[in-house]
Amino acid sequence: MHRRTVILGVAASDSHAVANQLIAHTLRARGFQVINLGTCTTVDEFAAAHRVHPDAEAVLIGSLNGHAYEDLLDLPEARARGLLDCPVLVGGNLSVGSRKQSADIERLYAIGVHRVLNDASELPAALDELAAPTPAPAATPAPAPTPAGAS
User: Fold this and answer.
1) Residue 63 bridge partners (DSSP)
2) Would you tell me the crossing angle of helices 123-131 and 18-29 to the nearest 10 degrees?
3) CA 25, 34, 96: angle at the middle one, nearest 5?
4) Type and span of the H or E element at 5
5) Are 26 and 55 in contact (CB under 8 A)?
6) 80-87: which pairs have CB atoms within 8 A and are 24 or more residues apart?
7) How many angstroms separate the CA atoms of 132 and 58, rounded?
8) What residues form DSSP beta bridges with 90?
9) Other Cβ atoms closer than 10 A to 128
10) d(CA 136, CA 39)
11) What's the pLDDT band for 149 if we cut at 50, 70, 90?
């Protein structure tokens, strides 16, 4: 049986480990192979892990200190170079301050984040969505034959 693999870590400037360990435990209990890079993980380290585990279906990055955007500024280059070609999901406290604005989320998408999660409980469903087969495009019906003599 194929075991689903994810790469997990905490953003480069962030040393919060508790949520990271809880997420790793939860995903392992659900049957995932979790490559946990731990805290203070750079984009280059995520890319290196993906090179070793190219079957990983996603890179999961947590951030609680509010500096996710700054920590992921190398993501566009890594994506452009093909070093991180799987979905990147980010969750946690993603901006500084108590007031969260949609612009904080939008700028993460703008640098190549595939999905932003508001709560760790959303993660299993988000991974299942990624793994779900995409429906085949609807077949286009063939044009009706033109009767002989018609123009």
Assistant:
1) 92
2) 50
3) 75
4) strand 5-10
5) no
6) 83/47, 83/50, 83/51, 84/43, 84/46, 84/47, 84/50, 84/59, 84/112, 85/50, 86/50, 86/56, 86/57, 86/58, 86/59, 87/57, 87/58, 87/59, 87/114, 87/115, 87/130
7) 13
8) 61, 116
9) 11
10) 39
11) low
The stretch 65-84 carries a mean pLDDT of 95
Residues ≥6 apart with Cβ < 8 Å to 94: 63, 66, 68, 69, 100, 104, 105, 108, 116
Q: Do residues 46 and 59 lie in contact, with contact meaning Cβ atoms separated by under 8 Å?
A: yes
Q: What pLDDT does residue 132 have?
A: 78
Could you report the per-residue pLDDT of 129-138, keeping only the tens digit for each?
887 776 666 6
